[in-house]
Amino acid sequence: MKTRTLLLVWSVVSLAIPALGEDGYRFWLRYDPVPDQALREEYRRQCREMVVLGRSEVLDAARDELLRGLKGMLGQAPPSVPKASRDGVIVIAGSQEGREITDLGVLGTDGYLIQSRRIGGKAATVIVGRTDRGALYGAFRLLRLLQTRESLERLNINDEPAIALRMADQWDNPRGDVERGYAGASIFHWDHLPALDERYTDYARMLASVGINGIVLNNVNTAKNGLTGWKLITAPYLPKTAALAGVFRRYGIRVYLSVNFASPMLIGGLKTADPLEPAVQEWWKNRAREIYSYIPDFGGVLVKADSEGEPGPFTYKRSPTDGANMLAAAFEPLGGLVVWRAFVYGKDRNPDRIMQPYEIFQPLDGHFASNVAVQVKNGPLDFQVREPVSPLFGAMPKTNQVLELQVTQEYTGQATHVVYLVPEWKEVLSFDTFARGRTSTVEAVVSGRLFGNRHCGIAGVMNIGSDRNWTGQLLAQANTYGYGRLAWNPDLSAEAISREWVEMTFGTNPRVVATISGILLKSWKTYEQYTSPLGLGVLCDKEHFGPDLVHRQKQHHADAEGVGYDRTLETGSGFVAQYRSPWKEIYDSLSTCPEELLLWFHHVPYRYRLQSGKTLIQYIYDSHFEGVEEVRGFQAEWRKLRGLIDPERYNQVTEVLQGQLAAAIKWRDAINQYFFQISGIPDAKGRITVSEK
Ligand code: GCW
């Protein structure tokens, strides 16, 4: 009896203190009370009741989210009514019913309208989706308007995603860890599934709030070193996947799985996985049917084949098209997509490894089945802090292409460094491939607009885990958020995205917004400055954490005279030839190559003078010192927030920045020492002395 009373008292108390225990779990969907009373009253008048037109679980999710958000922000949830009975009604309508209220015009799939208008003589805010999923996105948008304290007067919003396929790729292993994950263990508990965890729903809400519509539940590595991801398409696991699919479906998200190309052998006991073997083809057809018997709207499969120990068609002297098209034939009748990764390279090929994906895939253009998409990492190597855009974009006009970005910070500081990656992704998306004259941007390619391909898209390797704040390092939530927002609208500026995120996450105080945005917007460049400036490339140790330049000599090619990888036509690997003009010529010439990529394309003498007049070696030294000072600047900026945000999250980030400073100093000193010793050229400012070691 006593315990029950206590519990009751506790639950009443905890309801009354919403900000208790700020730990980042509520990410950007916090829904704390609007502090300005006048504004809160105004919003209340505009949100007095709610009408849902249509019936589906996605519309239910939209309604529930609105109720939850409005209750949190306004202190009361509007009652649901069948018909508008007074001014201040929110009407949310799905695909069918929406058409009866308003003209959707040319609004695209997943798009929505939000309009202030009169319904049955009452003042209403109407949210209409082209699909029910669109209506859900509209509901999140309306909540965002409140979260960012925008007016709800005279709304006339018309929004739709630029890119059809907006994927979250999890590198989660079913045994519970996450490859390149820095935010704790996997949130997916395969041992407990099909029992559900509340966190699955919250993750689905997180993804849907930024418009993600597909999730690959498991790592692309499925079998090497004892991994068991390959098992997910077997009978014991399919009910578990179906349970997860049920959670995500409610939020408009289709579920995909990474599969192992040798599954017919691993699971089916066949002697081969040769894609041209009829028994293999039959096996996949049956397996696809079995998957769909559990998950009727299964999205499809992601395949890492012939790459880093994962098996593929090369074993049988077959091509990626043979492999992908065989799977495509199995999934096509069921509406499934086959996403085939172009991250393929091997020892017996071009010694300049970054040339291999283009050499392998470009000649296959036009040979992939229509339900195959080729997924290409943003750069030709592997998610470095700076890379040129992969030359494969725009080079396969008859092929569906998906851009793969890495939201998890494998090479950009893990959970130790604050690095906001949206500015980098913006550069990638707006890069002009010149595939069809000007404005053949990567965005135009992966939206399918440029070549009229249907199954194009964007995939982000996610950065979330079981850590209470989802991303390990709190400010990394801005990357999760930013990835989704950019996938929806690549034209949004990095500033606009960071502002939205900060306002939703930390509140709208202009000082808070300016300070946190300021740090975020500088952070990518800062990380580049104290790690790998001028396109130096990979400098990290085997685990990708700290610096190890000796081990990476084959990447940066430093010697006594100079540094950089010669990829020019005459004297180098010739990689530049994979680009169209004018990039080919621009990159090929030392004088026109953009300086941030100089050492990616050229081997440059240390005494070479950059545009600023500074020598290359002095630039390297200075850049590393400046980068560290920038981190100190971040700390000083962050200190200004004391008292302006809650102490819990303030302290979380304070600690991260301390760790970042120590790590930045380590990077600076290791790199500057290395170049000082190999070049023998002293730092003009006398800051570098020979280390004891
Ligand atoms: O960069 C490498 C990563 C691997 C990853 C691989 C890939 C999932 O270090 O962890 O494997 O890329 O993208 O396949």
Q: Strand fraction band?
A: 5-15%
Total helical elements: 21
Count of DSSP strands: 15
Radius of gyration over all CA atoms, rounded: 26 Å
Structural class estimated from helices and strands: alpha/beta
Helix content: 25-40%
Strand order of the largest sheet: 6-7-8-9-10-11-12-13
C-alpha geometry? globular
How far the N terminus sits from the C terminus, by CA atoms, comes to 68 Å
- Give the distinct bound molecules: 4-O-methyl-beta-D-glucopyranuronic acid
Structure description:
This protein has 693 residues and is α/β, with parallel strands linked by helices. It is built from 21 helices and 15 strands. Helix 11 links the parallel strand 10 and strand 11. The longest helix is centred in the last third of the chain and has 33 residues, at 647-679. The radius of gyration is 26 Å and the shape is globular. 4-O-methyl-beta-D-glucopyranuronic acid binds next to loops.
Task: Provide the fold topology.
Layout: H1 2-16, H2 37-46, E1 49-53, H3 57-74, E2 89-93, H4 95-101, E3 112-119, E4 122-129, H5 132-147, E5 156-159, E6 165-169, H6 198-209, E7 214-216, H7 238-249, E8 254-259, H8 263-266, H9 278-294, E9 300-303, H10 320-331, E10 337-341, H11 356-361, E11 372-377, E12 400-406, H12 422-430, H13 442-446, E13 457-461, H14 477-488, H15 494-506, H16 510-530, H17 553-556, E14 562-563, H18 583-588, H19 598-601, E15 604-605, H20 616-639, H21 647-679
Parallel strand pairs: 1-2, 2-4, 6-7, 6-13, 7-8, 8-9, 9-10, 10-11, 11-12, 12-13
Antiparallel strand pairs: 3-4, 3-5, 14-15
Helix pairs in contact: 3-5, 9-10, 14-15, 15-16, 16-20, 20-21
